[in-house]
Task: inverse folding
């Protein structure tokens, strides 16, 4: 049985309902979880940068190899060299946080610029950008990164420039699509007939009012993507090298001890990766459903 | 004994739920209508009056929740006598608060199966329907002729493809599509709006239905094409004598084709009677809304004197915030002091004030 | 004697339609003559109705005059100044006087802005106005288009059709428009709301001396609101004159058919007299191969009745708009 | 297939071929550019293994007649590649093209297999959600999809290896090349299953298919089909399922190829991905450049399929 009920006799205007009342519970849960993860990452990044850690992530203690969580004050236990897993996880964020931001910055700025040119100008610019998009999409991302690593040295910032550039087509086509939608409704023509100069139409009406939620969502999804790439690379041995901790190389190091039945040193960072990426994905989708409007069934 | 009406709708209610406003959209809020065999009933009303939702409820094409929640739809056709909303009450639990339905619990999956059992053989066979914007009503990936043949093979004894194709072509000729054999193979993007609508009409009538529902068949078409489609419907009506439920916001289309007319406002029927009375400006016993609607269409007199159009103040009723009293009270200009209190607080019911003429207005009730 | 506010001379707008990369390489290019040599003038405080079936180019004329799409050739003179090729900077002051109301109710409204901000932006687009000035002007606009003050904080999605159209009009008045191209302003509205908007447009014309180019396929509304009417067919004006003469004393066969197709006026005899078996194939404009000479010939009953005279289809003697008395212009060799 | 349908397909095919050629040219240029910009002079890097001194290398370059200008180098490299000569691998000295073809097939099966699995999981869930709407089952399913697509695939790989191999002693964890064991097909299937589930695209694929399906179910011509009493599936299939699935195939192949690199590493799977990893490790340029080209060709293959299906289904011809 599906239940529908109306509480109030008189319904106020739609706009004075605060947005969390209008949104549906599932999306609110997504956004809440996402925001929790983002704050956790920010706090950990700060802690890591300021070196305020429960233990020194590099400090080896022979007596406590692969200790289970909670043993001898190590909240999350220790790894195969007896180093505290919690501190290493916190420091592990350094590996992807700033590079991730760089990747997002590149894909959003370039993507928006190309999207606006394609959407607003149209014609040959549109075809050129479509070609650029196809070109970037033709490369499997990891293969392109391996190529860059082979040519240059495996520095995370080079990699994140590549991740940023390969994120550009996605953003560009979303922005161009939004502009085409507005153009279809003659919105852009109505604004220019009124006398609004082009830069006002683009910056204020198109980007600020109609594209800001879209860009926030792309930023969250972009961060999730950056984490996935960084952890995969450090798993492949190209990311941060031992002994500095990164979630990827912690999983990889811990995995060797599966055969001895010790799962935790590899599972802890894997769960960290899982929950963080999940957080960013849910935040992006939740915001999208609330702000951009879920497609009504 | 006059023959029983082909279709009899009693107190039909179809609601939708706006999750963002957490309130019911009461699209159809107690509609009662009937169509005699061979007659054309015109339903006129503005957007949001519930005329299309009524038609979709008859056909059982409402998918959004909660959908049809109460009412009876009696259907009598050669040999079939059925209530299309058979034991709906078993699937729906309604709770009212001060006269308005505030809670609905509906077993939607259960009702969907039950409705499918009832309507399965009727939809497309006994009752056929054509829609607005015909170009988007045809499958863009299949040729027009093929879709008509499918209807024929589904709903008529002509199962063999070749025979069905021939029959489809004769129907294309019948709806005056030029060079039907060529058009048979063409796709909807290659046809004009007018021709798509003719193909839809052919598709609907090829199953020889007892009842044809036409929902805004001429809206969106050019003036010259509109009149051609209206002519075609008139010819088919005189030739086949098919019972039709014609829905439109264009009063001239309704007056041209209908025998009796129902005027809908805010999800209810406010006036119902023979077309020549309801739609003739001179006829006195008329619901204020009908009168105002007729007056707001530029008539020859208006145009002659370049006079102002008689306007109905205010906005079209929003079917979420329904007022307590008569739905048209806020925009009505014939409220007299004697009935103002009743109009504002109690909703009038649809009563027969003269033979065949039903009105929902306190003005005519003592 | 009211001044001429707008004059259009031999306006043309041809769209080049490329089929695909390959056809472009082969230079095969289809030119669609959307507007093919249109001339008219419009006086202050006057409304010119522009009617014709969809696809006849009436909207394109409106957009070309307002320079939304560049004209292929011809001249547009606004208030005495030739604006066809005027650079954008110079055009800007004039721009505020020439405005457009779009068919799509949401065209003028940014879906994410409240109505108050939409009007404030329109008021401030051409000259700096203090906050108090804006508030005062907003109240004035609301009163002119009779919108309730309470609606100021609503988003466009919360407004009804009629309210959206009125905000569109208020926005146009805010910049001080004197000439408005109204492209199908009533077609997306219900009958009762249409009547309100038609009355509103006429009131504004009386109060502010506005002049309208009223584009619509709703003949009744055009007849009511326009002083003069121009009938278009396949990119050309085939008849132009006073509104009631066009409606009741049409001289061009197409105009007669258009007005006689008004459903309720159509008595059986009128339609049968002009019915032409081949007119069954209405509706599909054949742009690719427009008939030479008079473009209406293939569907014209008079051309059929007169035994298909070659004068109609010979490109040299293509019928030109000529005055048949009392300022009434027709482009037909055998006016009714 | 109606004869009339051949023309749009031929048109779509020729358009796609031209685009693919242009794109592969672009890819080759990007690959060369990256190489050219790399700190070491590409040729000195190439010859690093064999020749020690700078002067010696300069001599070699003259001898080989290696042109100075960068575009001349690019053109000669491109010319060789078109003739099938992708150069020789620095590490193995074998012609790159032969190597790539040998392992390319494995990666192709791995990629297409996992794509198939992703679709086999995603399509039923999406259809269920589109037709039934929100049911008790749909929330857990979407949550599971989210978790699975956020899962690090290498960790899952290790876990699966441990469970399948260590626990059940199914097959020894040695290089995949020895096909003799009796459970060879299982060894073959596990990586495909792992990549199919954990390639990080499942939740997006489900959402895209569900949205497309619900959009089509709400189209007018489906309502006509219902009103006609016809089968909704027959009408909704083309636009609601066939085209979105080909869209997914074309757009997701790059992601899955990326995932393949990792899965091949985890499972010691003899594929292009592992070779690319190896080449990156040893800075073995010809190999990595060859792999990039072939990977790009794979991706273009996907979009070729997509535009073919679209042209075959949509009578209007290739344009939107």
Result:
């Amino acid at each position: 049985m599906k239940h529908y009920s109306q509480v109030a006799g008189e319904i106020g205007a739609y706009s004075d309902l605060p947005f969390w009342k209008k949104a549906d519970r599932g999306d609110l849960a997504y956004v809440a979880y996402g925001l929790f993860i983002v704050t956790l990452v920010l706090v950990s990044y700060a802690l890591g940068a300021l070196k305020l850690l429960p233990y020194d992530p590099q400090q080896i203690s022979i007596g406590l190899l692969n200790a289970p969580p909670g043993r001898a004050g190590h909240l999350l236990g220790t790894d195969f060299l007896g180093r505290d897993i919690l501190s290493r996880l916190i420091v592990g964020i350094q590996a992807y946080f700033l590079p991730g931001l760089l990747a997002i910055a590149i894909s959003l700025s370039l993507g928006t610029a190309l999207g606006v040119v394609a959407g607003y100008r149209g014609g040959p610019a549109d075809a050129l950008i479509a070609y650029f998009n196809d070109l970037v999409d033709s490369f499997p991302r990891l293969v392109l990164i391996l190529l860059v690593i082979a040519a240059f040295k495996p520095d995370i910032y080079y990699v994140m420039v590549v991740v940023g550039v390969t994120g550009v087509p996605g953003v560009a086509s979303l922005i161009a699509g939004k502009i085409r939608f507005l153009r279809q409704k003659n919105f852009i023509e109505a604004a220019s007939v009124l006398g609004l100069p082009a830069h006002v139409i683009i910056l204020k009406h198109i980007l600020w009012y109609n594209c800001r939620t879209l860009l926030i969502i792309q930023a969250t999804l972009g961060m999730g993507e950056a984490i996935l790439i960084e952890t995969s690379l450090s798993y492949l041995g190209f990311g941060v090298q031992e002994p500095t901790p990164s979630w990827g190389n912690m999983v990889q190091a811990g995995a060797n001890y599966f055969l001895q039945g010790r799962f935790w040193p590899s599972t802890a960072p894997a769960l960290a990766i899982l929950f963080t990426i999940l957080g960013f994905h849910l935040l992006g989708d939740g915001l999208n459903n609330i702000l951009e409007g879920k497609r009504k069934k | 004994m006059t023959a029983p009406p082909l279709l009899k709708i009693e107190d039909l209610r179809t609601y939708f739920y706006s999750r963002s406003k957490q309130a019911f959209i009461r699209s159809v809020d107690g509609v009662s209508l009937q169509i005699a065999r061979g007659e054309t009933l015109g339903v006129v009303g503005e957007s949001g009056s519930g005329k299309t939702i009524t038609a979709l409820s008859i056909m059982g094409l409402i998918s959004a929740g909660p959908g049809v929640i109460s009412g009876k739809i009696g259907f009598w056709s050669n040999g079939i006598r059925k209530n299309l909303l058979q034991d709906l009450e078993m699937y729906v639990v309604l709770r009212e608060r001060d006269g308005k339905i505030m809670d609905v619990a509906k077993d939607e999956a259960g009702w969907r199966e039950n409705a499918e059992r009832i309507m399965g053989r009727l939809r497309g066979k006994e009752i056929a329907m054509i829609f607005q914007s015909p170009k988007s009503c045809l499958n863009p990936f299949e040729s027009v002729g093929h879709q008509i043949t499918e209807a024929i093979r589904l709903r008529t004894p002509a199962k063999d493809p070749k025979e069905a194709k021939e029959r489809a072509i004769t129907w294309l000729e019948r709806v005056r599509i030029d060079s039907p054999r060529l058009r048979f193979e063409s796709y909807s993007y290659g046809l004009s709006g007018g021709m798509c609508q003719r193909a839809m009409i052919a598709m609907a009538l090829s199953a020889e239905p007892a009842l044809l529902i036409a929902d805004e068949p001429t809206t969106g078409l050019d003036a010259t094409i509109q009149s051609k489609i209206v002519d075609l419907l008139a010819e088919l009506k005189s030739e086949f004598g098919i019972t039709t439920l014609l829905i439109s916001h264009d009063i001239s289309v309704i007056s041209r084709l209908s025998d009796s007319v129902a005027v809908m406002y805010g999800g209810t029927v406010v006036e119902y009677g023979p077309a020549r009375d309801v739609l003739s400006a001179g006829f006195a016993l008329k619901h204020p809304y009908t009168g105002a609607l007729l007056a707001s269409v530029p008539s020859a007199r208006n145009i002659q004197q370049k006079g102002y159009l008689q306007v109905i103040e205010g906005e079209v009723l929003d079917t979420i915030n329904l007022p307590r009293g008569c739905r048209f009270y806020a925009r009505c200009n014939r409220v007299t002091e004697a009935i103002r209190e009743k109009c504002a607080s109690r909703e009038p019911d649809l009563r027969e004030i003269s033979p065949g003429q039903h009105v929902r207005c306190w003005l005519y009730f003592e | 004697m009211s001044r001429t506010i707008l004059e259009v001379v031999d306006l043309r707008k041809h769209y080049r339609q490329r089929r695909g990369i390959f056809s472009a390489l082969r230079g095969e290019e289809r030119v669609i003559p959307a507007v093919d040599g249109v001339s008219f003038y419009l006086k202050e405080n006057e409304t010119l109705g522009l009617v014709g079936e969809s696809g006849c180019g009436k909207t394109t004329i409106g957009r070309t005059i307002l320079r939304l799409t560049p004209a292929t050739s011809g001249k547009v003179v606004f208030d005495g100044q030739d604006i066809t090729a005027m650079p954008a900077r110079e055009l800007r002051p004039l721009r505020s006087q020439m405005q457009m109301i779009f068919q799509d109710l949401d065209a003028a409204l940014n879906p994410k802005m409240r109505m108050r901000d939409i009007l404030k932006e329109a008021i401030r687009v051409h000259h700096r106005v203090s906050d108090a000035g804006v508030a005062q002007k907003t109240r004035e606009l609301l009163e002119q288009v009779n919108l309730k003050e309470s609606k100021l904080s609503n988003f466009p999605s919360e407004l009804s059709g009629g309210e959206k159209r009125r905000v569109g009009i208020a926005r146009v008045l805010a910049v001080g428009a004197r000439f408005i191209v109204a492209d199908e302003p009533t077609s997306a509205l219900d009958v009762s709301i249409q009547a309100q908007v038609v009355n509103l447009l006429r009131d504004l014309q009386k109060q502010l001396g506005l002049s309208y180019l009223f584009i619509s396929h709703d003949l009744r509304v055009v007849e009511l609101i326009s002083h003069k009417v121009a009938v278009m067919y396949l990119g050309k004006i085939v008849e132009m004159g006073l509104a009631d003469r066009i409606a009741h004393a049409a001289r061009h066969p197409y105009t007669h058919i258009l007005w006689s197709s008004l459903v309720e006026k159509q008595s059986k005899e009128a339609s049968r007299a002009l019915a032409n078996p081949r007119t069954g194939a209405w509706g599909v404009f054949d742009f690719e191969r427009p008939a030479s000479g008079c473009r209406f010939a293939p569907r014209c009953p008079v051309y059929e009745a007169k035994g298909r005279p070659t004068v109609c289809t010979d490109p040299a003697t293509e019928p030109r708009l000529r005055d048949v008395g009392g300022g009434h212009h027709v482009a037909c060799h055998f006016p009714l | 297939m109606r004869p009339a349908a051949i023309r749009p397909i031929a048109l779509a095919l020729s358009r796609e071929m031209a685009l693919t050629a242009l794109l592969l040219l672009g890819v080759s240029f990007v690959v060369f550019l990256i190489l050219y910009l790399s700190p070491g002079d590409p040729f000195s890097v190439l010859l690093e293994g064999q020749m020690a001194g700078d002067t010696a290398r300069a001599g070699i370059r003259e001898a080989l007649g290696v042109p100075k200008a960068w575009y001349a180098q690019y053109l000669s490299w491109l010319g060789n590649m078109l003739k099938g000569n992708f150069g020789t691998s620095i590490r193995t000295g074998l012609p790159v093209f032969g190597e790539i073809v040998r392992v390319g097939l494995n990666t192709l099966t791995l990629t297409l297999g996992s794509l198939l699995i992703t679709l086999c999981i995603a399509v039923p869930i999406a259809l269920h959600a589109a037709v039934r709407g929100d049911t008790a089952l749909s929330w857990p399913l979407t949550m599971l999809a989210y978790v699975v697509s956020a899962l690090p695939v290498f960790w899952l790989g290790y876990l699966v290896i441990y469970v399948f191999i260590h626990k059940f002693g199914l097959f020894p964890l040695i290089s995949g090349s020895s096909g003799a064991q009796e459970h060879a097909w299982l060894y073959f299937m596990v990586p495909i299953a792992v990549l199919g589930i954990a390639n990080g695209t499942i939740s997006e694929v489900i959402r895209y298919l569900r949205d497309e399906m619900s959009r089509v179910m709400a189209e007018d011509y489906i309502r006509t089909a219902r009103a006609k009493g016809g089968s909704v599936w027959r009408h909704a299939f083309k636009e609601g399922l066939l085209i979105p699935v080909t869209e997914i195939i074309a757009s997701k192949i790059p992601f899955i190829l990326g995932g393949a690199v990792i899965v091949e590493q985890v499972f010691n799977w003899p594929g292009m991905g592992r070779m690319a990893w190896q080449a990156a490790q040893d800075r073995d340029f010809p190999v990595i450049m060859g792999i990039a080209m072939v990977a790009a060709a794979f991706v273009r293959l996907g979009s070729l399929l997509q535009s073919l299906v679209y042209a075959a289904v949509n009578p209007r011809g290739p344009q939107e």
Summary: Confidence is low (pLDDT under 50) at residues 174-180 of chain D. Residues 96-132 of chain D form the longest helix (37 residues). Residues 84 and 142 of chain D are 46 Å apart (CA to CA).
